[in-house]
Amino acid sequence: MMDTNVKGLIYVSRTVLPFMVEQNSGHVLNIGSTAGAGAYAKGAVYCASKAAVKTISDGMRIDLIASDVKVTNVQPGITETDFSKVRFHGDAAKAAKVYEGIEALQAEDIANAVVYCTNQPRRVQISDITVMVKQQATNNMKHKVTK
Prior knowledge:
Layout: H1 2-23, E1 26-31, H2 44-63, E2 69-76, H3 83-87, H4 92-99, H5 107-118, E3 128-131
Parallel strand pairs: 1-2, 2-3
Helix pairs in contact: 1-2
């Protein structure tokens, strides 16, 4: 998780940002998570990696303030992806339990938030956008509907 979420972000940014600064335009969209807002049981490293995404995004925004390069940290809440399958080592039943009783966000919901951020006029920078399902109040507080 640290290699992908933190080192990957740093390495790609270090490669791409000089070109954006040189042309004085661009938009960096980093995918964080509501998990970056605080730790939860058995998620310490994941939560820390997503907190790093938030802090790196904030630092980039500070460093790029004199340019027309925008930086946005997109923070999805409970989103139905293959992440749970990976987390539970391919156990599809266990992964499905994560979303049981919740109408989870879908990839298209996050894509819509990204499009919103990128369609703002030059003068507008969306620094952070948090997208959660109605059944989620914080990074680790959710209400599951039981049948």
